[in-house]
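Below is one such protein, fold included:
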Amino acid sequence: MRTLSIICLFLLSGLLSVAQVTVQTNLPASLAPNTNILFEVKITKGSISNFSKYQVDVPAGVTVTEGDSKTGNFTFEDNRAKIVWVSIPAEAEFVVTFKVNTGGASGAGVFNQKFYFLDNGSKKEVEFEPVNVTFDPSGATSVASLGGTAGNPSTSSEPKGSVTSTESTGSNTTTTPASSTTSETPVATTTETKTNTSTPSSTETKTTSTTSTSGSASTEPAVTKTTPTETKTTESTSSSSASTAKTTNTSATGLVFKVQLSASANDPGKAKFANAGKVTISFEDGLYKVLVGSFSTKEEAIEKMNQLKGSGFNGFVVRYQNGTRVK
């Protein structure tokens, strides 16, 4: 009975590890041949923190070169693109990119994805549902970034079938059913405002903002003096961390925030984004990127992003410093 309990605990541990792994891509159902696209993969890996590998097998005729590997090592051989991390990025969710040329591919094609990681000395393999694509001259010649625009949904892949767990000794292989869940860390917000008018000759304004997501925080101090009243404002967002982060207007450093709606190999023009507001198209790394706005704080950019969703657009916030995109 005790042995059976130990085996059950081991299997349950394997299921919980696999349940946290999901991938999401921006592949459409149809692609045109001889087209360059930016293939994006959003990996949700939960608490996995050590050696990991993502791989995708692409149809014959399709070639893949490196995009953004997030500190990983990229290779492409025999129609298989791989990114290997000695230590996977710390974020529970992140996006990697590949530059894909569809070449002379035609007819139906399949993108098969797998993810490998180490768990308690065992190498585990997670296989996802395949992404089916048709290569047709009337297919898409550009793809939207993850989230895309209306009418360009991204494709989510959950673990399928089973996960193979191999002990580091190489002697045993155990197969267990795979399950999947998606977890999000809630963020609680508490705002406290204090106003004290006592000295007409000087004013001291202090702004403190703490944002806690997955237990991390960053700190920047800001103190501004004006006249003739004294006002103290404190904003704190905290539910799982005692750290305090301070934000300030970043325009003096040349850092601005924008909302990116799409990225494509061909110039999409501004007409289709007429309802999005002030739109600019920036040619970066061989791609035309559609950007909206120029905000001094991330909060303003997020507010604009939410407004755009109500108009049928989806996007994400990016940062530029002195006209150059930064991570």
User: Anything to note?
Assistant: The first strand starts at residue 22 and ends at 25. The helical segments are 2-19, 298-310. The two ends are 53 Å apart (CA to CA).
